[in-house]
Design a protein that fits this description.
Number of strands: 0
Helix content: over 70%
Strand content: under 5%
Distance between the termini: 43 Å
Structural class: mainly alpha
Shape: elongated
Number of helices: 3
Order of helices and strands: HHH
């Protein structure tokens, strides 16, 4: 049986979750419905980015839990997985 996630890994995942939800909520509340009508679109984009960040958290946690045995590599995947997903979205969206 594979070892479970360490306390460090769970803490990193919790920090990612709080950061995604906190920053997403702040950005969503800061977006106003201006006269140009782009406030709704901005809110949808914010929800998509937060959703992708949360999906990255879930995928990196599952990958670390079920596919990686080495502790240092698990911590790296848990730390950088969600960030790499959001960065990939930003990079490919600019193309």
């Amino acid at each position: 049986m594979k070892p479970g996630l360490s306390t460090r890994d769970r803490t990193i995942l919790a920090i990612h979750t709080v950061a995604a939800l906190g920053l997403g909520t702040a950005a969503y509340m800061d977006t106003s419905s201006d006269a140009d009508g782009m406030g709704g679109l901005a809110r949808v984009v914010i929800l998509i980015i937060v959703g992708l960040w949360m999906a990255g958290v879930v995928v990196s946690a599952a990958t670390a839990r079920f596919a990686i045995v080495e502790k240092r590599l698990r911590t790296l995947v848990v730390t950088m997985g969600p960030v790499a997903g959001v960065l990939a979205l930003v990079i490919f969206a600019r193309v």
